[in-house]
Amino acid sequence: MARLILMFNKQVVKEYPLMKESVTIGRNEENTIHINNLAVSGYHARIDAAGNDFILTDLQSTNGTFINDKRVVSHKLSHGDNIIVGKHVILFVGTGAEAGEDKPAGPKTDLDRTMMLDTAKQKELLAKQKESTQVTEASGKIGVISFIEGADVGEVELKKKLTKIGKADTSEIRLSGLFMPATAATISRRPSGYVITTMGGKIKVNGEVLKDSVALKDFDTIEVGKVKFQFYQRETSEKQG
Amino acid sequence: MNTYVSPWIGAILEIKSSGITDVGLKREGNEDSYSIEDSLGLYIVADGMGGHLAGEIASKISVEMINKVFRKWIDKDAGDKEIFGQPDSSLSRKGNFILGGIRLANRVIYELALEKEEYHGMGTTVVVLLVTPSLVIAANVGDSRIYMVRDGEIERLSRDHSIVAEQVEMGMMTKEEAENSPLRHVLTRNLGSSEEVDPEIFEIEPANNDRFILCSDGLTDLVTDTELLNMSENEPDPGALCSNLIDIVLKRGAHDNATIISVDLTDIHKPKNGIFKNLGFFIEDMIISVKRNIKKIIH
Predict the structure, then answer these.
(1) pTM of the entire structure?
(2) What ipTM, to 2 d.p.?
(3) Given this model, what pLDDT does residue A98 score?
(4) Among A82, A189, B54, B257, which lies 20 to 30 A Cα-Cα from A178?
(5) B256 and A14: CB-CB below 8 Å?
(6) Tally of structural domains, chain B
(7) What values do phi and psi take at B241, rounded to 5?
């Protein structure tokens, strides 16, 4: 089945299977693809099934509808087309591609080949349309450790990719104490989340002695020697790298 | 296979590494590039895209450029202002060298692609691994990957920049759906398509017997993470592991170029935190507290 993938700021917002005969795109809530953005007209464009093909029609929208980088009034969609509506991009995924058939018509795309979404072109195009838009900032989560006992540090955001905890000057979190190692433990931010690893210090996570490393969950309690703290994640407006 | 004993100050790192690339059974040319620099602890795989020879050129530039500038910045112990682009405060110094190197390679490929018509639309993925006795840095752009095998488990140290991977992360698609999606090769980031690039970089502490596997999607399209783990666990030699993996890829059709590097940390000697060091800290603590008390008395 052919599909439409709605994207904003390179992020996928939603996917729509093309089940109906006709699909409309616009700011009005009655549209199949409803985009609440001022750069988008109330009824901006529609897509109609015509045999095995899909035809896009611009509904005389204020800011126009673009296919890849060309403004269009009507256009027969081919697999991989980027439909640009305001600052949103809708990617068209054709049926031929889905079933792995070779379509004779239209530009053939070798799906085993790696392709790049043409964001440079999109950016150029979007820069031309300086409409006031509601931009939702991409926000991420950042780990925080909050001290409970044994150290007067309060809360520390884990801003580094690798946070070292210990006595050494180079530690992001410096703890004192006679038997505190130079580096007692590290907390690393990985693709899967935050992970604490012992580096020779006696570390307990939720009361259990840590052998090597463990993934941290919100409100895990961590003890490093006599120091006790809690881990959690909170929203941040800062962009994460 | 290479064995390298790296003489870092106050620590020793013993590395065994091996790399292999194969054109596969369907492609005419090999657009992948890779490099192994045991003396730097730097390993790179890049998977180029773009017609004619452009993909091959893009991947080659990224590998050469990152190697060159990383070595230069290490040699002169470059400061924040000497590296390319704004440094990222969440990263170590060496992490910023890699970040700067990837950004610079992106800019060079981007500008070359604009300049010459035959290079228009060229781009490349890149994965970079740096190993030192105290730090392992993994960086990536695109869908080439870095895996870490530690204590019988496999973990990705890279994040795929593809439409399907982003959908999986947002919970809109299952991993199985992603593997079969026609969009699985559509990237959201690469080197060469725009002026700026935002690489993914992770930093972790190394451990003895860690194994890192860098690869292009020619491997991961055909071999699952679990299969990769099982094959890795059964083959202690990195060179043999790489050729076993290529054999499997070829048996399964090898529709794309495949490149694999295996880096094994066979031995890390760190300065031990012995009783004398603890005693040193104890004396340091005493001196600091005596100083504080003297200050209090003076005031």
Answers:
(1) 0.71
(2) 0.78
(3) 44
(4) A189
(5) no
(6) 1
(7) -60, -45
Quick one: tokens of B79?
């400061």
A127 close contact with B: CB closer than 8 A = no
Q: At what angle do helices B93-115 and B54-75 cross, to 10 degrees?
A: 140
Please give the single-letter amino acid code of residue B144.
S
Residue A113 has which token pair? 């080949």
Token digits for B225?
Answer: 């993470």
Residues 6 or more apart in contact with residue A76 via CB below 8 angstroms:
A53, A54, A55, A56, A106
Question: Mean pLDDT per 10-residue run, chain B (299 residues)?
Answer: 63 90 95 96 96 90 97 93 92 96 97 91 96 94 97 95 84 82 86 93 94 97 96 97 97 96 87 54 66 69
Query: B254 to chain A nearest CA, in Å?
Result: 11
Q: Write the residue in A5, A186, A190 that is nearest to B155 by C-beta.
A: A190
Between the two ends of chain B, the Cα-to-Cα distance in Å is 66
- Ranges of residues in chain A whose predicted pLDDT is under 50: 98-108, 121-123, 125-139, 239-241
* Orientation of helix B238-251 relative to helix B225-233, angle to 10°: 140
Tokens for B10? 């106050």
Domain that holds residue B159: 2-298
Of A118, A159, A192, the CB nearest to B155: A192
Which pLDDT score is estimated for A225?
Answer: 85
Query: For residue B172, which amino acid is it?
Result: M
Q: Are A240 and A158 within 8 A, CB to CB?
A: no
